[in-house]
Specification:
The complex is a heterotrimer of chains A (about 250), B (about 160) and C (about 55). Chain A is mainly α and about 250 residues long. Chain A contains 8 helices and no strands. Chain A is about 75% helix and about 0% strand. With about 55 residues, chain C is mainly alpha-helical. Chain C has one domain (about 1-50). The chains are: A mainly alpha (about 250), B alpha+beta (about 160), C mainly alpha (about 55). Chains A and B meet through α3 and α6 of A and α1, β7 and α4 of B.
């Protein structure tokens, strides 16, 4: 177990493994998204209350879920990096930030476009779900700004890991905001007590979208981790040998 | 203790500390974290008097009155215990209908009627096809029975 | 055409799907470009060092 763990954490091994992994994540992910988008837009029935506007759920929910998932990668990467002094874990955290910011942006924008016709507003200041998700976006921006302001990678890793860990409390708030306080946003659909509150014909495309988005997120993350690893190891022998070898290491 | 275990403890304590601090802060500002005030609380007089605020509840069946050819309207809103009259002039969101959850922004008028300057519609977390919703109508009937019969539980101060 | 109109919500639904696709594509392209740029910089430096030897 530990031997395997150490091998996985060795930069040259991970650099190559990630390259092989990317198509295995991206291709099934895109296929699931293609199915989910088609079934969600054209096969699933319209909603009894919201009509066709409910179809925004098929991009909104996966984005919102990944906005939190990416943050947990960032925070756990930071924690493992701080405790075990594992550089690869810090690289995972740094790689997750821009992807997480992109999905948080998507969750906010698609939610806003959904809110306009249904709730009657693009944005409501003071709503706990909306506000905490916006704070999540600012946490990503803060994390990235902090990293780029510190030249020394080891110092940047430590400082940004602490910020990521402090911000975990906001992810918990995003998740429970609709249960703890009154909000314009409705409660949990998928993790509701007694099973998802959704017809199967609507649910399966949504599950396909969530899984597809997760796989694509994995592919995007693997690509960014490779770049992080390459940059951090730029002065090592294995990078030099790889670049001078006839096949290169792109 | 090994250095690694010390770091583990430090990280754990730091996260716990932040969580407790956040929990206490949120508890202290509990009232401000609420997006809207319940109708029962409004009836009991527990609402900000100097400023505008939001109320949330369900539109009582058959209570929606519209002025002919104008945007003026009034309806009653309930939290299944207490009812409150609301007056509003303006455009309504697509989801506004009787039995629907709504959030109204405005202030209490002198006559005990809430004067709204903005109405937002809430939708629930259930998604289903129209046909399924129809077959569930019996269930919905039970849920909205209170809406039609009116509420008596509430004691006016 | 009816399917595209989405019962008058077409603008909202299609813009959400379009923006999502665009952001994911941009995210991927940016990651590829950044990787290429980092690789190129390291390659130039290492090859220059090699020639000096």
């Amino acid at each position: 177990m530990w031997k395997w763990f150490h091998k996985l954490a060795s930069p040259p091994h991970f650099y190559r493994l990630a390259a092989t992994l990317i198509p295995w994540l991206a291709v099934p992910g895109l296929m699931l998204i293609a199915y989910g988008a088609y079934a969600g837009l054209f096969v699933a029935p319209e909603d009894y209350q919201q009509g066709d506007a409910f179809r925004i759920i098929y991009v909104h929910v996966p984005s919102a879920y990944l906005s939190m998932m990416a943050y947990m990668f960032m925070a756990f990467g930071g924690a493992i990096g701080l405790i075990w002094r594992m550089k690869l874990a810090h690289a995972v955290g740094a790689a997750a930030a821009p992807i997480g910011a992109a999905f948080t942006f998507l969750a906010l924008v698609t939610g806003s476009i959904w809110g306009r016709p249904m709730w009657g507003t693009w944005w409501e200041w003071g709503d706990p779900r909306l506000t905490s998700e916006l704070i999540l976006l600012f946490l990503y921006f803060g994390y990235m700004a902090l990293r780029s302001s510190i030249d020394d990678t080891a110092k940047a890793d430590k400082a940004s890991a602490v910020l990521a860990l402090v911000g975990v409390v906001n992810v918990v708030i995003v998740h429970y905001s609709v249960e703890w306080w009154s909000s314009l946003h409705q409660g949990q659909t998928l993790f509701k007590e007694g099973g998802p509150a959704m017809d199967a014909s609507m649910l399966y495309p949504l599950l396909a979208m969530i899984l597809g988005f997760t796989l694509v997120f994995g592919a995007l993350l693997a690509r960014r981790i490779r770049t992080e690893v390459l940059y951090r190891e730029r002065r090592t022998r294995w990078v030099r040998e790889m670049i001078l070898s006839p096949e290169g290491g792109k | 203790m090994k250095p690694r275990q010390q770091r583990m403890l430090a990280v754990g304590l730091a996260v716990l500390g932040v969580a407790i601090a956040a929990g206490l802060t949120l508890r202290a500002f509990e009232d401000n974290m609420m997006f809207f005030v319940d109708i029962s609380d409004v009836i009991a007089g527990e609402y900000p008097e100097e400023r505008n605020f939001r109320i949330g509840g369900l539109v009582v069946d058959g209570s929606v009155m519209r002025q002919e050819g104008a945007l003026d309207m009034s309806f009653r809103i309930t939290d299944m215990r207490c009812e409150l009259g609301v007056e509003y002039t303006g455009v309504l969101p697509d989801l506004f209908r009787e039995g629907q959850g709504v959030v109204a922004h405005g202030a209490m008028g002198d006559n005990g009627i809430f004067v709204a300057d903005k109405i937002l519609a809430k939708h629930d977390e259930n998604y289903m096809a129209p046909e399924v919703a129809e077959s569930l109508a019996k269930h919905v009937d039970e849920k909205t029975q209170t809406l039609r019969e009116g509420t008596t539980e509430c004691e006016q101060p | 055409m009816d399917a595209m109109a989405m019962g008058n919500y077409g603008m909202y639904v299609w813009s959400c799907f379009g923006i999502t696709l665009a952001v994911i594509l941009i995210s991927d392209v940016r990651a590829r470009l950044r990787h290429k740029q980092v690789y190129r910089e390291i390659e130039v430096r290492i090859k220059a060092l090699e020639e000096r030897k």
